[in-house]
Amino acid sequence: MNGKLLKTALCSAAVCLEKNRKRVDELNVYPVPDGDTGTNMSMTIGAARRELMVMSDDATVSEVADRAASAMLRGARGNSGVILSLLFRGFSKGLAGMETAEAADLANALEIGVQAAYKAVMKPTEGTILTVARLGAQQAQLAARESNDVLSVWEQTCEAAAEALAQTPEQLPILKKAGVVDAGGQGLLIIWEAMLAVMQGEAPETAETEVKTDSAPVVMAIGREDLEEEINFTYCTEFIVEKNKDCPDPFKLRAYLETIGDCVVVVDDDEIIKVHVHTDTPGLALQKALEFGQFINDPKPKIENMRIQHAGRVREAQNAAQDETYVRAEPEKAFGFVAVAAGEGLEQMFKDLGVDCVVRGGQTMNPSTDDILRAIHATPAKTVFVLPNNKNIIMAAEQAVNLADRNVCVLQTRTIPQGISAMLAFDDSADLDANRLAMTKALERVSTGQVTFAARDSEIDGTDIKKGEVLALDNGKLAFTDKELNRAAYRLAKRMVKNDTGFLTVTYGEDVDEETAEQLVSQLQNKYGDKIEVMLVNGGQPVYYYIIAAE
Fold it and tell me: Most buried in the list 202, 389, 464, 517, measured by CB within 10 Å?
């Protein structure tokens, strides 16, 4: 395998996963709205594709793998995206310094990737993307010992991965009940099989459009029409032909060009024919033109790859947007803070508590490692505490630690209330270790309730859940369902209150009006009187109708 083949295979895999991401998303069995595996994995490998599109076809297999891994590491979103980036990060290490890769090299690279992914997950769960990757890599090792044929080894790798994926329901009961396979494993198999198709000589997948609307949470949306154009053919081809004496009717040239491309412009003058066409086969356009005359030297025929140009423009626009969002700051103070939150009220609350940079994101909109890294670099502190405030963002935040130019401490905040409690526990006069301990103890004392809606039909622990029902979550676990919003929130708050509870904080989201929220708080105040202080906060958060904190 050379660099060009690997580049083509990875780019094709990214497009293939993007086309299938909704199918992968639908494999998520838990009904709570979340970042969705297919979307996160697609955006992660999509970051690699944007980088690879502007690389030369002369790049070595090592250079391609390294560029892809670096882009995925920074673009990783959600736990599934981080795991995918780690698999390819190890893969790139296995191919380091190589111009081309033999079958044994690929097998070794896959194994290193699996080791890196397992090492990063604190409690690896079998029946997930990790299992699919591990068993695929194991088969690659066995196949490489018998044959040095790259295609044969990759075929056997995909076959083993497919078998492993089919067995995931036997390893995770929740998958078996839902009658689905693991979403992350399915996403990885789609990537590997798309790469295999390119190795087998099939035409690579091409994107319907080069820009998707689901841009990074903290990056300003790219709205210019020139960045959203649809590219149906790759090469913009322009030339001028000096007519022969017996030149055929130029209309015939136009008619032919329309069969091999679009955006055809043929200007017929007395002595010349000027041509513009977008096509995948510029050679055919030039060859046909010779029937009408000869090319002139000034200007010379011009052939430009529009996909590479477009990818470059998109990247420049995204970088400009990122630069406007965050400006790098030199470390000045001892400690600084980055928090992830969504909703004007919550963002302002964290700023009031001393957070330097708020990364807009959370449930259904997981920020990438690069989003968090840029926020860290925009924080003028020698040590930056990062509060992910969501279990699916913690891994992406941890990947930024080794990329940052300053000390970073990622706190294991899984909810917004935990992040707020951690900030309240910070002591400016204490050192790093003392603050880390105090903030961790504070977040662990908080009980979090969340009221949201069922994004899909499901069955959890014998309970049938219908799409659209109100869901009550007690510290991340489904407590019950209900038909009425405030009744569900009231029941959940009662469930959370313990003998030592002194405070209840009710934060209402963008889909709840103030009057409805005040009615809930009034009910709770009537219930608990002077025993518990009940506070109401307008968080403006999406997804969650209410976030309830009990302390």
Answer: 389
> Band of the pLDDT at 151, cuts 50, 70, 90?
very high
**460 has which bridge partners?**
463
Which pLDDT value is given to residue 345? 92
Residue in the block written with tokens 């997981």: 366
| 23-43 mean pLDDT | 79
Q: How far apart (Å, rounded) are the C-alpha atoms in residues 341 and 362?
A: 6
299 cis-preceded (ω within 30 degrees of 0) = yes
* Non-local CB neighbours of 287 within 8 Å, separated by 6+ positions: none
Average pLDDT over residues 305-331: 63
Rounded to whole angstroms, how far apart are CA atoms 507 and 540? 8
- Give residues with Cβ within 8 angstroms of 172, minimum separation 6: 125, 127, 128, 182
Contact 362, 393 (CB under 8 A): yes
3-state secondary structure of 460: strand
Contact 212, 18 (CB under 8 A): yes
Residue 70's closest CA among 47, 53, 100? 47
Q: Per the structure block, which two tokens stand in for 513? A: 């009006």
Helix and strand element counts for the chain (H, E): 19, 17
The per-residue pLDDT for 225 is 37
Q: Quick one: which of 161, 219, 164 has its CA closest to 191?
A: 161
Sign of the alpha-carbon torsion through 112, 117, 121, 124 = negative
Q: Measured between alpha carbons, how far is residue 464 from residues 181, 473, 480, 529 in Å?
A: 19, 15, 10, 36
CA nearest 358: which of 387, 383, 384? 387
3-class state of residue 186 by DSSP:
helix
pLDDT single digits (tens) 524-543: 999 998 899 999 999 999 88
Task: Convert 373-439 into a string of H (helix), E (strand) and C (coil).
Answer: HHHHHCCCEEEEEEECCCCCCHHHHHHCCCCCCCEEEECCCCCHHHHHHHHHCCCCCCCHHHHHHHH
Dihedral sign computed on CA atoms, order 2, 146, 196, 72: negative
Res 227 pLDDT > 60 = no
CA neighbor of 393 nearest in space, from 433, 361, 345, 351? 361
Residues with Cβ within 8 Å of residue 322, at least 6 apart in sequence? 216, 218, 219, 374
Is the pLDDT reported for residue 249 higher than 90?
Answer: no
Give the integer Cα–Cα distance in Å for 196 and 190: 10
Q: Which residues contact residue 535 at a Cβ distance below 8 angstroms, ignoring those fewer than 6 apart?
A: 503, 504, 505, 506, 521
Look at residue 47 and tell me whether its pLDDT is greater than 60.
Answer: yes
Contacts 24+ apart (CB under 8 A), 444-447: 444/418, 445/421, 445/551, 446/415, 446/417, 446/418, 446/421, 446/549, 446/550, 446/551, 447/474, 447/475, 447/496, 447/498, 447/549, 447/550, 447/551
Mean pLDDT of 113-142: 91
Q: What is the pLDDT of residue 217?
A: 40
| End-to-end alpha carbon distance in the chain | 58
| Cα distances (Å, whole numbers) of residue 209 to 206, 217, 219, 227, 307 | 9, 20, 20, 10, 10
Q: Is the pLDDT of residue 219 over 60?
A: no
